[in-house]
Each structure stands twice: as structure tokens, then as C-alpha cells.
Amino acid sequence: MAMHTCLITVLRNGSWEVLESSELVPGDIVDLGSSGLFTLPCDAVVLEGDCIVNESMLTGESVPEFKCSLDQGTTVLGSIDMEAYTFSPSVSRHVIFAGTHLVRVRRTESVYGSYVDNTAEGSRNTHTTAMVIRTGFCSTKGALVRSILFPRPTKFRFYRDAFCFVGILALIAIAGFTVNAINLHRLGVSASTIAIKALDLITVVVPPALPASMSIGMAFAARRLRKKGIFCISPSRINVASKVAAMCFDKTGTLTEEGLDLLGIHTADHRTGQFTKVCTEVKELVCSANSAQDGGIFDSAGDPGISVIKAIASCHSLRLVDNKPVGDPLELKMLEFSGWNMDEDEDTGTTIVSPPTSMVKADIDSNSSSNERICNIYHSEKRVGSCKYPPAAIRILKTFDFASELRRASVIVCQHGTQRRAEAYVKGAPEVIKELCWPATVPREYFSILNEFTQKGYRVIAIAGKPLESWVLSAKSIPERAEIESCLTFMGFLVFENRLKPKTAEIIGELRQARIRMIMCTGDNPLTAVSVARECQLVRSDVSVFVSHVQEASAKSGDTIDVFEGKKPNGFTTFMNSSHLRPGIVWKESTGKEIILDPVALVPSAANQTDKDAVAFAEELAESGCYCLAVTGDAFELFTKDVLGMEDTWKLILMRGLVFARMSPEQKAVLVEQLQVLGYITGFCGDGANDCTALKTADVGISLSEAEASVAAPFTSSIPDISCVACVLREGRCSIATSFGCFKYMMLYSMIQFTSCCLLYVYNINLTNGQFLYVDLFITLPIAVCMNRVKPFKVLVPKRPSASLISKKVLTSLTGNVVLIIGFQVAVYFMTEAQSWYEKPVPKKPGDPDSTPLEGNLNTSIFLFSTFQYIFIGLVFSIGPPYRQPVRQNYVYIVTLTLLLAFNLWMVMVPAKGFYSLFGLVHVRASWRFVIFGMGAANFAMCYFGEQFLFPWIAPRVAKVFRFVRLASNRCLKRGCGHCINAYRRKGTEDGVGNSGAATSGIWKQTNKRENRKEYKLLLEKMVGGAGLY
Hints:
Oligomer: single chain
Number of helices: 30
Low-confidence stretches: 118-122, 288-296, 358-387, 554-582, 977-1013, 1019-1027
Largest sheet: 12 strands, mixed
Structural class: alpha+beta
Shape: elongated
Strand order of the largest sheet: 14-38-37-36-15-29-35-34-30-31-32-33
Strand content: 15-25%
Distance between the termini: 41 Å
């Protein structure tokens, strides 16, 4: 993926040369029609000709994109930001990016080069030229590769705490180094030997295998995910997935199927000012009374000069590849519904659409003269130019592609072979199209019909058009887009159906049981999004949804608004002046009930206070708190651009918002960032088409696209539904629980060995090399590896695993087990010395402490006992449910522990001479061997009891003690520094959530905590029913 070189034709010194693509530099002119050029090696601007490219490598979108040359006198080059990862749509339509595949290239007369193309086209100098603007890692593909090689640092508490623990271990090593250095110096050991032994002790306390052992669990999790078709490029994000508290989903292609079905067209009747019935077939639109004498087609829905049939057949940006139209699936459905044919004029480079040359006559009454006339329109042909087209064929003169910021697309068409009867057609979001149409052409029930469709989950596209005067087309240039897309005649709605994926509702229910907040983030209509959210149970049926509507506020700047007419909710006060409310946002109930939300406090109230039913329902809703928000992109934009003075409301919106509609790709990424600011570990699941930025911004990004661009996300799933989300979360929880268990095991392993060494250092002896190798290679390594092989638990439980290694629970467990381990080893040490057969280690050479032999009764007793500790501690820290399967189902681990335990028992009970000489052991009495095993069993029993029952009981009580001490110290500090606090408030400094010290009031003051998600969750829990929204 990263490395691609090819041969390409480059203009050098006025002539064309074939060079390696690695020799390209910005400013080079290249020929895109070079033989063998299929994948672009650089970013370039098209200068001449045009081409169709597949950008799925970058965007994940499999729909080919059309790239056209720059217009003369354009200012596009000056607006290109060379440092930007992507360009604006107005720039991107002229830029081809590295890594994309050429689908089709069309040449044109060129002013560059000296060789002549002697093809069938004639003796012409034709090329498709482009100017190189970026190469290598500076290109868009290079930036993608950089993001993979150098991903955004993961700020995860588990990894930060791990470094803290390494620091604690280092302090323990320094303390052990100091004590043992003093003791060895007392024994007369040389300084060089003391240094070696001390450094050896440091490697024992801080085991080098600690990072590797903690990564094994993630490696096994990544392997299991890969077997399920989920690929991970950042294994550290697997542990992060364990703490995901909010999961954002794209709608189309993620929760719902990718394709859309065009159910029909709901046209407007301008004579009655109402909608006609829904037309499910294009034949229903044709009206004989409006058929033109010269073969042009009018229809029952269009005004003279414009036609719904022409609109749905021509208002698209489809292109022909291998004589097949390719492009947006929605536009393909439109063309398919119209039944028209598509062709391209090679001479002019324009697209021509025409009615079918044959129609099924079975549906037409042959006795009807009007119907015969319609058939003649579709059947008649005449030669135009070099091709045969029906007289009703139309030529697409200009296409204004869909722009996400405008939410619409448009075309200019005319009858083929003439400049007469030119028309403009526009399609887009119904809310946008309505504002561009003459009010007289918009039916009275426009929004009621729109709401009726969207509430059923249908996707609705509005179409409009207008005839253009002939003088417009005779001008030297096409009119500006704003001029074309104005003063339109509304024509009707295109109604599309988008079905849920089979697994969507099931996975949403599973995530709800795990109390993971789920948010829909889509570019679709808000009511359609709400309907889909209800259908998949992302929004419960008993939860009311309020949709944002942006409108200009009428209040003057400086006026103070008391947003409550009656009793204020707890914690709320009179809020800021209305200058921050312009333009205002009105929250309306999605089903049409006369209930609105307060614009600041977001508390339900009746729109008409005289409506007793509405007042009662609003009071009930305010009391229960069972309502959520559907935020539109324009409202979201208002808050993200200027939230000054509305911080409280903005946080409430983020907490109560479950549906975010009409969101651009950039806004999706901003939403993820805002949720992260609140303290959420946030995940995002999308199809990779327009979600790449959000996928990379999220803590856990899961792409459902198999395109190469999706590898920028931590996880890429070949599973085409959101069941991969549950898999990733389960594996994340299993991995973090395994990492905790393995970390605690490695900590205890180092402390066991550290204690053994310290006790033996009393006599200037140590474990033998064979003993060290056996413990490290044959006990610790197999246990650490096999411990991580356990699979995740099948159920996602509501409680998420802890990510803090310095939490009271972890510290209590570690401290308790360390005390037990040290205590038992010290007991064995003194019990050994108390035996009658015990021989004290002494130097072989008097006066030379370094000659003390390592073998002896003390070494043998300490080593044999510690081997049981290594094995039993591994069993103690084998965590099972609720995040991992029971340890008994980890068969490899059970077999490993059984074999090690059996071998240790055999080694203790049957002192084989060969093994004893290999490990440097000596024979001890048989009764003492039973004592060693009994002490090991007792140590295991106490550690297991403590880990399962005692330490979890002690941990919360220890936490309460620490909390009490902290509160007491804070109170003492406030009493002693009251004047400082008052001065702080007078200065107007800001508190933790951005409010000034003098004005700190309202809902956030009552919590008086640092800014994190718990603070806001506490607020929702105080709202009755609020905690149950998700």
C-alpha cells in the first residue's frame, strides 16, 4: 500500500518523456493517458481533458468520481491549501489523488508537448494532462500512511498507571539495593561484587518481561478478532475498547442497508396547491395533453417548460464506464426508475439522456389516440449529429455536483440538437429546496407530508426546476450556481426506503443491556433518523424526542431573559442575556405534539398554556425525564462556533442528544471530540465513506468498509453490520481484565523473587543459574502466556472494568498478597534455621565471603517453597466472569498449571539426583518436604480467600477512609485560606467548567467536582428517568 512506483509520461524540456514516478516533483506536467498507468503515484490538478477515478482507497466510497479540468481564469489553484489533508469539494473535483485508480481517461486538444497522436481521431495533439502538486508522504495517500505509522497517542489511564507502578518498583529496588548493600558490606563483600549483586536485584524487581507479558493478552484478542473478520492496526486500542461509554453510529450503510429503493414520486399539483397521489411507475407521470408537438416530453406534474421525468432522468452526476452508468446508488435508482437511457457525446464530452426506444405496449390502450401519441414520442427517432436519439432526448450542459454544505445538486439541460427549451433542475434536502422555490408553488401541506414520510423512516429528496431563457445559453459562460438555484418551481418528493440490517436491533439491545450510550450521527433528515432510531430501539418507544429548529431570535441584545415562567428547576437560575440566543433554537416534539423545550434549561413545557392536555403532558415529561434530543447540523454548528454564555445548555445537549442529523463529516468528528471533552471514552462505527475523520478521532473507531482508507481506523471489519461492535467491546473487556491479571501476576512474581534474593543475601548467597532459568523460562513464561489465552465472556455486563492500576481495589489486592507472600517466605526462612539439621552457610575460604557456596539447606527450602508460590499466584489471579470465561474453560492453562504442579511435587517428594544437581539443590528430610508443600498450600488458600472475599471487602472501606481524610484536609485548607478563595472569586477567574468565579451558579456549581463525565452523569441521575435514556 505504502510503496508504489510506475512508469509515467512527463513533460520535460518541451517534450514528453517516460520516467519513473519516483522522479516526479511538484510542478511537473504528466499525461494521465500514459500506457499502463492505472494507479496514480501523486496528487495532481487536471489541466486538460477529464477522467473518472475510483477513490475507495482514500474515502472508502466505491462510487467512481468524475474529475474535470480547470476552467480558464479559475482561482481554484490559489485556494488550494497544500498542508491540508483533504480539499474542499470545489477543489477536489479538479484534483486526482495518489493511490486512486483510473477508471476512464478522455483526451482533448492539448497545448503541451510535441508529439502527435496519429489515431483514428485524426492527426491531433491530444492528451489528458495534469500538474503534480504533491508527492510521497506529502500527498493525501502519504498522510494516510503517516497516520498509520504514527497513530495518535493513546491517553489511557491503564498505560499511565503502568509507568507509575514501574516507578514504585524502582523505589522498591533502590530500597532493597541500599539495605542489601549495607548488609553485604558488613559481611566484607567487595565493592564490585556488591554492585553486581545490587544491579541483579534491580532486574529482579523490575522484570524486563513485564511489557511483553502485558501485550500478550492484546495479541491473543487481536488474533481472535482477526478470525472473526475484524482487523486491528493498533492493538493498544483493544484495551481502550473496554472503557467505551458512548458509541456513535452512522446510519446509512451501518445501521441500515447500503442500497435505497425508490418507492415513488409524490408530485405537486400547482393548480390545486396540493400533492397528487404517489406515482410508483414513471408511466403514471406521462400526460398526453401536455405532450409537445415536436417530440419533447411534458408530464402531469411539470409546468410548461419543465418535467418531473426529465428531472429524475437528468439531475445526476452519473458517468458511463464500459457503457454502464456508474455513480451514486441513489442517482442510479433515479435513472433506473425513469427508464431513460444514458449516452455520452464524444465530440462535446457532454451526457445525453433519452427516453427508451421501445416500451411495453401491453399497458397502453391501443384504441386511445392520446396514448398512441405518447408511444410515438418514445418510438420516434431522428438523427442528431452522429448518433440516433429520440426527439425528446436532452443534453446535460452543466452539472453542479452535490455539496455537503449546500445539501443540494443541480443540472442545466436542453433539448438535444438545439439550444431551445433549456431547463434547470435541482434536487436536495427538502428543507433547503423549499427556501429556493417560489412560495406559490409549494403545497400547503409541504411539511405535514414530509413529516409523514420521514416519521415512517423513509428518506425524502425534494426536486424543483425552472425553464431558462434562450439568451442565457447563448452567453459565453454558464450562469453562476446561485443564479441557477433560485426562483424555482417545486415539483415533488422522491421517496426512498432504507431498511435496517438484520443484526442492528439485536446488537442495539445488547449494548443497551450493557448501559452503553448509543448515538446516531447521520447526514439524513432528522425525522427520518428519529424513525430509524425508534425502529432499531436506539430510542425507546416511551421516550419523547425533541428536534432542534434554528430561527432568528427577536430579542434585542442586552435584554435579560428569565427562561422560566413558573418554578425554576433545582440548580438553575436566571441565565445570560439574549445576545447569545441569536439565531435562536426552538425544540419541538417530533410527533407534532404541542410541547417545546426551554431554549436554555431544556425543560419541557406546553407551547400553548391554555391547552390543559399539553400542560399536563409537559409536566409529566419534565417529572419523568424520559425525553431526548435530535440535534440538526445547523444547530450543532451554532453551538460549536459560539458557545460563550451557553456552556451549561451545550453540555445538556451533549448529554441528552441521542440523534444528530444533517451532520457533515467534519461535524461528526467535532461531536466525537466534544464527547471526549466530557470524559467519555467514545467509539464510532461507520462505513468508511464519509466517516474517516470521525473514525480516526474516536478512541475506538470501527470501519465497516474494506477500502484501504479504512485502515486509518483502529479496527476494520469485514462483517457488514454492527455485530462487530459487540465483538470488539467483549474482546476489549477480556483483554483489560487479562492485562490486570497478568500485571498483578508479574508484580507478585518479581516480589517473590525479590524476597527470595533478599533473604539469601543475608548470607551472601543467591539462587543458582539453573534455579533462575527454571523459574523464568519454565514457570513464569508459560503461566503468563497461557493465562492470556482465555476467551471473553459472552455477555456484556453493565459495569465496565477498571482501567486504573492505582485504584483502591488493585492496591488493596496487591498489598495484601505481597504481605502474605513475604510473610510466608520469612516464616519458611526462620523455620528452616530452627531445624536441628540446618547448616548455616559459611565461606569455604575463611575471610573470603565471596567463596560461600550457593547450595545449602536455606537455598533449597526457599527455592522449593517459592516455586509453589509462582504457580499458586497464577491460579489466584486467573480472573473469570464477568469479563472472561471461567478459568476451567482455558484448557491449555489448566494443563500447564497441572503439569507444573505435578513436576514441582515430584521434585519435592522425589529428590532425583540429576535434577537436584542441575538446580543446585541438596537433600532435606522427608518431613520437611511435606512442611514446604503444606506452607505452599496454606499460602495459596489465604491468597485465594483474600483475593475473592477479604480484599474486595476491605477496598471500599479503605476508599472511604481516604475520602474522609481528603475532605477533612480540604475543609482545613478552606478555613485557613478563606481570604485567598475570596480573592480568587473577586478576580473573576474561571472554575473547572469555564464559568467565572463570580458567576459560578446553576447546575454545575452544585456538584463542585472536576470536569469529567461523572459530573454530568450525576446531573442526569438527579433528573428522574434521565439515567434510563441510554
